Each structure stands twice: as C-alpha cells, then as structure tokens.
Amino acid sequence: MTQIKSRGTVNIATERCKGCELCIPVCKPEVLRMSTNRNKLGMRYPELLPGCTGCTACLLMCPDFCFEVYRYQEPILHEVDV
Amino acid sequence: MSSGSDILQTDAPPSQPAEKLCAFKPDLLLSEDHHLCPGCGEPIAVRMMLEAIKELECSRRAVGVIGIGCYTALTGIIDTDLVQALHGRAPSVATGTKRMLPNGLVYTLQGDGDMVNEGLQEVIHSAARGENITCILLNNGVFGETGGHMTASTVVGQRTKNTIDGRDAKEHGQPILISEMLAQLSGTAYVARCGVFNASQTVHTKRILRKAFQTQLDGKGFSFVEILTMCPTGWFVPVPEGPDYLENVLGSVHKLGELKCE
Amino acid sequence: MTRVLMEGSEAMAKAAIAAGCRFFSGYPMTPFTETLEYFGKHLPDVGGVSINAESELEAIGMAWGALATGARAATGSTGQGLALMQESLSEITRAELPLVYFNMARGQGDYYQATRGGGHGDYRNIVLAPIDVNEAVELTQLAFYLADLWRNPVQIYGDYLLAHTNETVEISTMEFPPLPPKDWAVDGSLGGTGKSRNINPIGMSKLKHEIEPEAFWRRLHVKHKEIEQAEARYEEEFLEGAEMLVVAFGTVARFVRYVVREMRSEGIAVGYIRPITLWPFPYEAISNAAQNTQKVAVLEQNGGQMIDDVRLAVLGSAPVVALGGFSSDEAGFGIGPIHGTDNIRDRIEHGLAGQEVMP
Ligand SMILES: Cc1ncc(C[n+]2csc(CCOP(=O)(O)OP(=O)(O)O)c2C)c(N)n1
Ligand code: SF4
Ligand code: SF4
Ligand code: SF4
Ligand SMILES: [Mg+2]
C-alpha cells in the first residue's frame, strides 16, 4: 500500500465524450485512461485515477468540452496497491 | 481518504473544498454541444480564441466574420456578434465592418480551403492594405467539410481524397505557405503560426491570439494567426493519432513560430 | 437650393450621399467609373468611407460588411463586374441586407441579369431604371429607402448615356416615412449576453443547429410577393385610344416618349408605357393597358429580353411585337443610333405597319 496525492480533480461530462482520446497522452501524471464501458454515443470515455494535479491539460485538448478542472484547497490522499 | 486503485468519481463537482480552475466551456460559448468529428482541432482553437477575446475584455466589442468550412457549424454557439460570409470572402467583409466600426474587434475565422484556395486574393489584399483586422486561419491541410480533399496548403505526400497516393509535387504542385507569404507584405503588423497538437501549444496559441488582437486594438494594422488543427477524418488517420500527424506531417512544412511582430 | 449642371454619374453619387450613404466600394469599369470617382472624392467630406476595392468580388464583400453594421452602403459596376458579384448578390438578399448597387450598363442587354440575376436560389432584387438624370437623383434616394424598408438589395439600372449626360439638377435630401430601427445590425455590444447577433444568409440562428431551408425560403418568398404588390412603378402616356402601345425603359424610353408625343401631336394613335421598376415589373398596368389596344410593341436596346415580361403581362390579349435591337458604338459601350428620334420613329412606324424589326 502506498499513498497518492490528488492536488486537483476533474468533472467529466462523459455523455458527450466522442472517445477521441486526445486527453489521454497530454495528462502528465497519466491518471486518465479510457473506460471499457461505452456511453450513449457508443464511445469509450476517460476515467480518472488518483494523482490529478489540476493542470488543465485534458481540458485544453478536449474538442468536446468534457472537462471541468478543480484544485483542492487541501490535497486528497488515496491509499493504493502498488 | 479513498482506497485502492479505484476509479475516482468524476460525474459531479468535488465534494471536498476546491477551487474551480476552468469551466467546461469558455464564457463566450453558448453550449458545449456541436457536431464536429471526434478529435477535431477546430473547437480547441475556437476555445482559445474566445478565451483570448474575453481576457482582453473585448466580449462586448468583438465581431466575427466567418468563412465556410467545418468551423461554420460553430457559429450557432459562438456568443460574439457574427457575420456569415461567403466561402473565401471573409477578409473583405471584415474590412467593410471594421471601417464602419473602428472600435470593434473584428476578426475572421476561415479554413485553409476558404482562405488559401477560394479567397486567396482577399486575404492578400486586406493584408497589403494594412487593414486593421485580425484574420485567423484554421489550417488542417484539407477541405474537411467536403470530406477530405486537397487544398492549396496540403503538404507533399499527404493523402487526401483527390491525392490518394499522397500529394505529388510534380502533378499537384507545392503547398502555399500563407504565413510566410503574408509576412513579406509591409501592410502586416503581426504574423504567427501555432498549432493545437498538445496542451502547451494550445496555451501558446491563446498567447499568440492575444498578441494579434492586441495589435488590432493598438491600431497597428493587419494581424494574422495561422492555427494548425487536427482533421483525422480528412486525413484518414486513426483519431488518437491526429495530434502527432499534425505536428510531424503538417508542422514540418508549415513551421511554427512568430514570423512578424511589429 | 439652386440647380446645378451635373453629369449623371456625379449626380447619382451625390444623391446617394444626400440619402445617407456612408460607405462605397468599387472597381473601375466604363461607364461606371465616374460614379466610383465621385464617391472617392466626396464621401470623406461627410465622414464616410470609400474603398478602391481590388476586384468586384471584394468590392461587394466590403459593402456587405459595412451593411452588416447598419450603415447605408453601396457598390456598383457594369455587366461584367456585376456578373462577378452574383454569388454575393443572392446571398446578401438572403441575409436581408439593404444593399444599393449601381449598374451602369453597356446598353440594355443586361435586363435579364438585372431582373433574373445569375446568382443561386430563389432571390429577387428591386431594380429601378431611371429615364434621365433628374429621375436618377430621385430614384437613388428612393433606392436607399426601399432597401431599408424591405431589407432587400436595390439596383439602379443606368447606362453610358445616363452616366455621362449633363443635366441641371437639384440635389437635396428627400423625406421618406420613418423606418424601423436596425436592431439586427452588429456592433459587438451583445457579445457574451447570450443574445449576440448572427447575420447569416443560410437561415441559421444561434443555438439552432438545424438549418430550416424550407421555412426560410418560404418567408423570403412571401416578402418578395409583398414587394411585387407594393412597389411596381411605371409611367404611361396617351393610352386612351392608342392603336399600338410602345413599352420601353431607361434612357431609350426618353427617346420613345419624345417620339410618341410627337406622333400623337400629328394624330397618330400610339401610346407609351415605361416600367420604372424592372422588378417588380408592372405586369398589372401593362396587362390593363393591353386590353384597350390592338398591339403592344417593345422597344429595347437588345435582342429581346424585357419582351418576355411584356408577354407575361399581356398573356395573349394582344399581339406583342419586337421593335428593339442591338445598337452600339464601336467600343461596345452601348451608345448607338437607337439613341435618336429618327431611328426610334422608324421603328415605331414599322410596328404600326405590322412589321417586326430585326434586332
Ligand atoms: C463557392 C463555394 N464553393 C464550394 C463550396 C463548398 N465547400 C464548403 S466548405 C469547403 C471547404 C472548406 O475547407 P476549409 O475552409 O479548409 O475548412 P475545413 O472544412 O477544413 O474546416 C468547400 C469547398 C462552397 N460552400 N462555396
Ligand atoms: S487536470 Fe491534468 S492531471 Fe488532472 S486529469 Fe487533467 S490532465 Fe491529468
Ligand atoms: S478529449 Fe474529450 S472527447 Fe476526447 S476522449 Fe477525452 S474527454 Fe472524450
Ligand atoms: S472533417 Fe476534419 S475539420 Fe471537419 S469536423 Fe471532421 S475533423 Fe474537424
Ligand atoms: Mg481545412
């Protein structure tokens, strides 16, 4: 077990995600990955893992305005299996 | 404290105290919904443009003159005053608008098909006159809207519907590098090329747009921003590969940089 | 106000400025060039803008952009230049912008171009065809009023003769009924309010992604029907007891009117009717006049274009004969023997004798 800190987080409008994956490689801490489930459009969408920095890179690259980005006042700690 | 490698809940704003850094859409967009393709670069560029207008406190004086291409579909949600021009004709229309509205921030939004093909003389003449407007080119090297055909800015080797084996310089000629062309004219005050293929370049795009708009606000003359944008549909490449293709295939010919800043 | 001697081109441009025109863009072409020159010289005096556009395509685009701000704006050219402008003319009509444009034609061979147009879609432009410089001064001012009233382009169809004839004119701003405010015009001020404007020729408004072509075209059609009802203008003389009615327009009609007056004074039973608006065409007036005459003659300076509209008006109630034809100077500017009373009289006498005239 180890602790991972999230300084930020995102609110993802998965229902209008078109599954382009542009948000995935721009996330430096690599905390976004595509879902296995599909939304109503039939698309996979991004899911967030612990460790978001609130950098807004995903938002900047999303052509469909699916992200809202927040910075926590106090970082959130997550227990994860390594 | 949450536990495990669980996927975090992201279908609502966080419940813990947090500051919202950025909303889904820029203030000058009426809705997040549009019909452009997955992975299209145009909405990304338009976001930067609208944020730049807002940051310069020009929301209440901006008038956009829009060309015809995929971006035209965004006119329904762009919340600045707009004039829809004919294919290729936006710089002249913007000229008339700006002359009668000298305090307006007048911009055009055009694609490479619109600007570099159909309306090449319009942008060149407006630039040469030093018209105090800002022309914004979304260059994806294709007619996206008609389904991926060669434009005058398609790079050699690029596959399009009418250059199936790639643009062949012998048969189809060489692309026009419009920013380089316009930078030569003494009427232009600001010329820059950028691209939205990664987050830092996207932020840089906004910086460039702000400079171009500022050029106009300062009355310095014609400003021009060429933004390279992804069009995976018109390039026939897998959607996630769009940004790399843009950077390496188009970007190696249409080179990024500030070409002129007066 | 004193009357001054002025060339038609200058008089029209001056009348436009008197009517509040504050923007002009054009590209030189005979016989339109002098109109452009006058605007260039005198618009800046009243704080207006005149641009030497690099092409007709750009000239009309500039006027479009100026119109969008609510300014009174105009452009113009000759047949060839107007041919280049056709795409914009039809789209400006659909965008419902009040463009006024001068057509200083090389004769009357551009009647079809003026009334049918070469643009796409179901569109109509009002066309005013002055007979002389004095009427041109009035019709130019009327053009700006009608353009604003109907939010529709208006063309002034003149020619070399009109553009280059000197007449004494008095140009002062004419009074017209009040017009609604141009609340559709862009000035940027509604940005970010959710109510920003979109001046659009494809019937698409903000937050409505579906274009509704059918409803849009129908609405435009209804407006054009209303214009047809309200705006047809014509002049008529000696319809009473006329055996033959001569239909003519523009500067050619000036000679026709003169000859008809002369012939009437000699007791010859001819009458005269002149469409002042080529669109809307005065179908009803000509239709009524045709009921009381034996034949209708059309005297136009071309191979036969307006005659189609006359036939549509007459609808078989009287024979329609063509008395017009090609008539030009060597340079092709459209000044020819038809601009002379002898030539016109000869044509009308042929008509009375039941003979068509070869164009
Ligand atoms: C006069 C005219 N010719 C052709 C078209 C068809 N057309 C619509 S969009 C377009 C190409 C647009 O290309 P571009 O400006 O590069 O925009 P993109 O779709 O790539 O964003 C064409 C040729 C048109 N609308 N008008
Ligand atoms: S804000 Fe930055 S760190 Fe967080 S998910 Fe988006 S790209 Fe990744
Ligand atoms: S960039 Fe936007 S649309 Fe594309 S996969 Fe990510 S969230 Fe979905
Ligand atoms: S065709 Fe290309 S430019 Fe047009 S919406 Fe699709 S990806 Fe964007
Ligand atoms: Mg393109």
Structure description:
The complex is a heterotrimer of chains A (82), B (262) and C (359). Chain A is mainly beta. Chain A is built from two helices and four strands. The model of chain A has no long low-confidence stretch (mean pLDDT 96). Chain B is built from nine helices and eleven strands. Chain B is globular and about 60 Å long. In chain B, strands 4-3-5-6-10-9-11 form a seven-stranded mixed sheet, with helices on both faces. Chain B has a two-stranded antiparallel ribbon with strand order 7-8. The termini of chain B are far apart. The mean pLDDT of chain B is 97. With 359 residues, chain C is of the alpha/beta class. In chain C, strand 14, helix 12 and strand 15 form a beta-alpha-beta unit. Chain C is globular. Chains in contact: A-B, B-C. At the A-B interface, strand 1, helix 1, helix 2 and strand 4 of A face strand 1, strand 2, helix 1 and helix 7 of B. Strand 4 of chain B pairs parallel with strand 9 of chain C, so a sheet runs across the interface. The complex binds thiamine diphosphate, iron/sulfur cluster (SF4) (3 copies) and magnesium ion. The site of thiamine diphosphate has 19 residues of chain B, from helix 3 and strand 7.
